[in-house]
Amino acid sequence: MLKTNQMIEAIKEYSIPFANIDDLLALINKASRAQYVLLGEASHGTSEFYEIRAAITKELIQHHGFSFIAVEGDWPSCFEVNRYIKGYTTQYANAEDVLKTFSRWPSWMWANQEIKELIEWLRDYNNNLPAHQPKVGFYGLDVYSLWESMEAIIEYLENNHASDAKKAKKAFECFEPFHREAQMYGISSAFYGKNCMVEILELLQTIQQKKDTYTHEPEAALSMQVNALVASNAEAYYHTMITNDNESWNIRDRHMVEALKYIQSYYKDSAKGIVWEHNTHIGDARATDMKSSGMVNVGQLTREEYGPKHVYAVGFGTHHGTVIASDSWGNPQQELTVPPAMEGSWEDTIHRAGAFDQYLMFTEENRKFFHSTIGHRAIGVVYDPEVEQYGNYVPSRLSKRYDAFIYVEKTHALSPLIF
């Protein structure tokens, strides 16, 4: 393990300062060679992370032929964004209108000013494409939308395949006694053996068998398949989360990679995609203490599935600033102070090398300088700055976890939309 002063000197030698998107072109050009570019974030409430990811995303779409964005969000709400930016619907007057569909807590993750601007850009970009050129898509990879996904399935089937709607309603009715309370379903399933696994698997099988008949709306077959996949994997997730947090995590991240495959298949194998998720999902789990707990994540699974050369993961971090988060699950959002990084952490070490915005690109030449296992800050939707040193730092080998790392010296809370 290198001494801190050695790592500081290595950061000074290999880091690149940046002030705008032009300064990031070396990173973008390198990332563009991959089939999947994974863009992380150290929190779910930092403006700079969203803005930098948006700028990188625009470059990858405009100049490197990337076809879609897949995010750590619910499929039904993200699919409405997809419909809006592709002109499939006149239901929404503008981006802010479509973002109202992100009503499930924590809504600020996607219903914010930074995403609003990106969505309007995507719509304008798609509108200006030649008629023969496929439009850029926007999709959600997460597993939490069990009830919303079931409702979307039923609505489509009632309007277009009434005979199959009965099976969907039967599956949905199985969940009704739990009043959309995931924990209530999990307890019933884990401890009392009362679950909806059979009904969900039957519905998933039916939708898979009949996917080629879902042609009444643009991308209906894709949406039906992924909504059914969400329902199936969400059932497993909620069943497991009561008794095994680590395995429920694995179910969630495996689901996100499986959903990504469906999207990729829709766009054909040669298409290239951009993934937006927290560092804890896109940074390879094998380079953290997650490995010893038997946990996997999207970063690891995509590298294993497609090969490291076809996946380019970019982590993000900050030394101090402000963030949008909540003091407990389900409570209102707050703007909270992010204190200076803990001494000895990656963020502290980079700060000591130079208190300015900078990034590192890891290569065979320099990886050995950033291979030490030290703390790397991770802020979730629930955050307590006063005790972050006890639970918000993930032991990480930075150059194994990511292919590049973007550091912002001082960050600011993003701007949630208020409806």
UniProtKB/TrEMBL annotation:
InterPro entries: Emycin_Estase, Hydrolase/PRTase-associated, UCP036794_erythomycin
UniProt record, GO biological process: response to antibiotic
Domain of life according to the entry: Bacteria
Keyword Lipid biosynthesis: no
Keywords: Hydrolase
EC number: 3.1.-.-
Keyword Hydrolase appears in the UniProt entry: yes
Top-tier EC class: hydrolase
Molecular functions per Gene Ontology: hydrolase activity
Pfam families linked to this entry: Erythro_esteras (PF05139)
Name of the protein described by the UniProt record: Putative erythromycin esterase
Organism from which the protein derives: Priestia megaterium (strain ATCC 12872 / QMB1551) (Bacillus megaterium)
